[in-house]
Write a structure and sequence with these properties.
It is a single chain. The chain has nine helices and eleven strands. The chain has two domains: 12-86, Phosphorylase Kinase, domain 1, CATH 3.30.200; 90-260, Aminoglycoside phosphotransferase (APH), C-terminal lobe (Aminoglycoside 3'-phosphotransferase, Chain: A, domain 2, Alpha-Beta Complex). With 267 residues, the chain is α+β, with helices and mostly antiparallel strands. The strands form three sheets. Strands 1-5-6-4-3-2 form a six-stranded mixed beta sheet, covered by helices on one side. A three-stranded antiparallel beta sheet has the order 7-9-10. It has a two-stranded antiparallel ribbon with strand order 8-11. One of its GO terms (molecular function) is transferase activity.
Length: 267
């Protein structure tokens, strides 16, 4: 039996010296290992979260959505837990948009069509979106009990749907493969739920950087998905609260709070 070069013993992974960093955040690093991708979390990341992301990825792949296949979850020598996936050679759609600003709307059409395609699938074993949002809202210390109640009431009144939702769908999570096919990565926040909620999250992620691009996205999504813009907007206070609870260092809390503050206005 040939020993795996990534394996120190039967339980701990060693990353090769040839690895290169693709992305670095406060809680994780993503490495290119040549023929595989390793997402390595810091020691504070619960193992259950990493295994859950791998499970989400497996369930989404089984539904037929194009995504890098999960290969392994393992502890990494000297670090935390890691999720190892296959590598899809290519560039992100975010890189394409940045490199070709004159083709932004062409790339945006690809992006929206892919999201609508994802929303056409189901995976009954994924976590439920409304349960996740309710838990996240209840854990928010930033807002008072009255606002939390309003948000939970709004959530409870939304139409119950069960489509696959990415939960963090943005161009940096779309890979344009060398053959032109689009693949979707980073399914940590995947749920079964409302496509309009997923679109609301994508709108907010665009709006954090560029309001004009966010508005263009929303108009195109609602046209292609045949969803009233008002329905997507009804979700925005809820998804803003959920995003706030994630405590991401690269997201403007004041911007998210401004969307939560309009909950009564939007009612």
């Amino acid at each position: 039996m040939v020993q795996d070069p990534l394996r120190k013993d039967g339980s701990t992974m060693l990353l090769p010296d040839s690895k290169t960093v693709l992305v670095e955040h406060s809680n994780k690093k993503v490495y290119d290992l040549g023929d595989k991708i390793a997402k390595v979390f810091n020691a504070n990341k619960p193992a259950s979260d990493v295994f859950n992301e791998a499970l989400n990825l497996a369930r989404v792949a089984e539904s037929g959505i194009r995504t890098p296949k999960p290969l392994e979850v393992s502890a990494v020598e000297g670090e935390g837990w890691a999720l190892l996936t296959e590598k899809v050679p290519g560039v992100t759609l975010a890189d394409r948009m940045s490199a070709e600003p004159s083709k932004f709307y062409e790339h945006l059409e690809q992006f929206v069509d892919l999201q609508v395609e994802i929303h056409g699938n189901r995976s009954p074993l994924l976590n439920r979106q409304r349960d996740k949002y309710a838990r996240m809202i209840n854990e928010l210390p930033h807002i008072n009990a009255t606002t939390r109640y309003n948000l939970l009431e709004r959530l409870d009144g939304m139409k119950k749907e069960f489509q696959i939702c990415h939960g963090d769908f943005n161009p940096s999570n779309v890979i344009v493969a060398e053959d032109g096919q689009l693949y979707v990565c980073d399914w940590a926040h995947a749920t079964q739920g409302s496509p309009a909620a997923d679109a609301a999250m994508t709108y907010l992620l665009f709006a954090l950087n560029d309001k004009q691009q966010a508005d263009a996205y929303l108009e195109l999504y609602c046209d292609r998905a045949d969803v009233p813009m008002q329905v997507v907007r009804q979700w925005m206070s809820i998804v803003a609260a959920a995003e706030l609870s994630r405590k991401r260092t690269d997201v403007n809390d004041e911007f998210l709070m401004s969307w939560i503050d309009v909950v009564d206005y939007m009612g």
